[in-house]
Amino acid sequence: MFDLLVKNARDIKGNALEIGINSGKIIDLSESLQGQAKEVFDAKGAYVSAGWIDSHVHCFEKMDLYYDYPDEIGVATGVTTVIDAGSSGEGNIKNFYALAKKAKTNVFALLNISKNGIVTQDELSDLSLIDEAKNIARIKELPDFIVGIKARMSKTVIGQNGIIPLQMAKKLQSKVKLPLMVHIGSAPPKLEDVLQELEAGDIVTHCFNGKENGILATDGEIKDFALKAYRQGIVFDIGHGTDSFNFKVAQVAREEEVSAQSISTDIYIRNRKNGPVYDLATTLSKLLKVGYSLEELISAVTTAPAKNFDLKNKGSLEVGKDGDLTFFKLEDKQEILVDSNENIQQSEQILTPVACTVAGVLYQESEKK
């Protein structure tokens, strides 16, 4: 007896796949499954993958600058897990956790190294708000919620502090042994100085922004130090956002064999409602237009973020893993796709989620309200 039996789905290679889930876990996968089930979902030929993970969002709804609601950017859009990227710090992350536990979507968080997270745009301009001991205490207090730390290293955030906040983040990281995500943007600090502080496994988000301080040089090629960082194992993450994804940069990077290993949205309520982000599927469709294969896209929102943030029970279709699934179609459809700098591309194909499950609980399109 299955709690949920998925019939008539396809894996991303197009092979028939049926899945049985019990007690929130995948217990069987096969081309064809038989047996009784409390609930049967007919995927009607849709693709199925491990549940999509958006590893850079802002969904602490009590904030003012950047906020959203987990289920609006989660199960309502085919995303089963979201990771809030530094909206909160040690001073308010317990309040965020209390709200996040109520969501249908799995919610994790990166702890902003500044006390209150992004209450103001310049949270790293006052170094007195970075308290290592309190950060460590909070991480120990919420080990199942805090899966990494976050430092935003761009001009509007750091004030006159240069590279110092990043060095403080790296020191904290060395003690708590958690992943570090670093936001890059306008100088100061210079991108080269930021990348020099990082090591393999550290995550650079907004990797394909179109800013002068980004990875693309004025001669139209990827900067040498950025190539070096990529080849040394620093993880390049999309983090689309309102101002941080540029088609040309993504295309040039692709041509120089620099691909984003993880794809995330940096979504919050305004760029969800007004664009250019809208949802994770739209971001995936933009990378499809750049030339990423379906296998690369799905890996970048399943396997890669699960590995980057040590989500051991997520990210792959295997017996024993969490029953988090995303069902989607790859449709031949011409739509206008817009990057963060108002550059336009026209799609030939788009990804369209149709349903998802979180721990075996099904959320279909008609229920996503």
TrEMBL record:
<keyword id="KW-0378">Hydrolase</keyword>
<feature type="binding site" description="via carbamate group">
    <location>
        <position position="150"/>
    </location>
    <ligand>
        <name>Zn(2+) 2</name>
    </ligand>
</feature>
<keyword id="KW-0862">Zinc</keyword>
<dbReference type="InterPro" id="IPR032466">
    <property type="entry name" value="Metal_Hydrolase"/>
</dbReference>
<feature type="modified residue" description="N6-carboxylysine">
    <location>
        <position position="150"/>
    </location>
</feature>
<feature type="binding site">
    <location>
        <position position="266"/>
    </location>
    <ligand>
        <name>Zn(2+) 1</name>
    </ligand>
</feature>
<dbReference type="InterPro" id="IPR020043">
    <property type="entry name" value="Deacetylase_Atu3266-like"/>
</dbReference>
<dbReference type="Pfam" id="PF01979">
    <property type="entry name" value="Amidohydro_1"/>
</dbReference>
<feature type="site" description="Transition state stabilizer">
    <location>
        <position position="152"/>
    </location>
</feature>
<feature type="binding site">
    <location>
        <position position="56"/>
    </location>
    <ligand>
        <name>Zn(2+) 1</name>
    </ligand>
</feature>
<dbReference type="InterPro" id="IPR011059">
    <property type="entry name" value="Metal-dep_hydrolase_composite"/>
</dbReference>
<dbReference type="GO" id="GO:0019213">
    <property type="term" value="F:deacetylase activity"/>
</dbReference>
<dbReference type="InterPro" id="IPR047601">
    <property type="entry name" value="EF_0837-like"/>
</dbReference>
<feature type="binding site" description="via carbamate group">
    <location>
        <position position="150"/>
    </location>
    <ligand>
        <name>Zn(2+) 1</name>
    </ligand>
</feature>
<keyword id="KW-0479">Metal-binding</keyword>
<feature type="binding site">
    <location>
        <position position="58"/>
    </location>
    <ligand>
        <name>Zn(2+) 1</name>
    </ligand>
</feature>
<feature type="binding site">
    <location>
        <position position="183"/>
    </location>
    <ligand>
        <name>Zn(2+) 2</name>
    </ligand>
</feature>
<dbReference type="GO" id="GO:0046872">
    <property type="term" value="F:metal ion binding"/>
</dbReference>
<protein>
    <submittedName>
        <fullName>Amidohydrolase/deacetylase family metallohydrolase</fullName>
        <ecNumber>3.5.2.3</ecNumber>
    </submittedName>
</protein>
<feature type="binding site">
    <location>
        <position position="206"/>
    </location>
    <ligand>
        <name>Zn(2+) 2</name>
    </ligand>
</feature>
<dbReference type="InterPro" id="IPR006680">
    <property type="entry name" value="Amidohydro-rel"/>
</dbReference>
<dbReference type="GO" id="GO:0004151">
    <property type="term" value="F:dihydroorotase activity"/>
</dbReference>
<feature type="domain" description="Amidohydrolase-related">
    <location>
        <begin position="47"/>
        <end position="342"/>
    </location>
</feature>
